[in-house]
Amino acid sequence: GPERNSTRVGRAQGMYASADFKEFSFMMVQNYVFDDERFNGSSLSILGRNPILSAVREFPVVGGSGVFRFASGYAEARTYFFNVTSGDAIVEYDVYVLHY
């Protein structure tokens, strides 16, 4: 969750680009790189269109590495805070993954 005392399990890395002329939306690729003891060095990758003003957005999990090799599934994003001027945001991602 967005609480300051939430347990850190890794970090997000990625990029985005504008994806729509009519709606505030991005094309986004994101990698979740884990550094906790159980999944250290493993990663998950998501890719998709992100209509950021929607309450809940869904993205496919397109792959992974390490423990998450051959991963598939989806991620749901919910924005808790977004500052249009600065671009700062707090977004929660719930990721549902099947892996071998």
TrEMBL record:
Please indicate which superkingdom the organism of origin belongs to: Eukaryota
GO BP field? phenylpropanoid biosynthetic process
Query: Which Pfam family is one of those matched by this entry?
Result: Dirigent
Q: Where in the cell is it found?
A: Secreted, Extracellular space, Apoplast
InterPro entries this protein is in? Answer: Allene_oxi_cyc_Dirigent, Dirigent
Is Secreted one of the keywords?
A: yes
Q: What is its main location?
A: secreted
> Signal sequence: where?
none
Secreted found in the keyword field: yes
Q: Would you name any one GO CC term? A: apoplast
Name the UniProt key words of this record, in alphabetical order.
Answer: Apoplast, Secreted
Complex and partners: Homodimer.
Chain's role: Dirigent proteins impart stereoselectivity on the phenoxy radical-coupling reaction, yielding optically active lignans from two molecules of coniferyl alcohol in the biosynthesis of lignans, flavonolignans, and alkaloids and thus plays a central role in plant secondary metabolism.
Q: Which family does it belong to?
A: Belongs to the plant dirigent protein family.
Q: State the protein's name.
A: Dirigent protein
- What organism is listed for this UniProt entry? Tanacetum cinerariifolium (Dalmatian daisy)
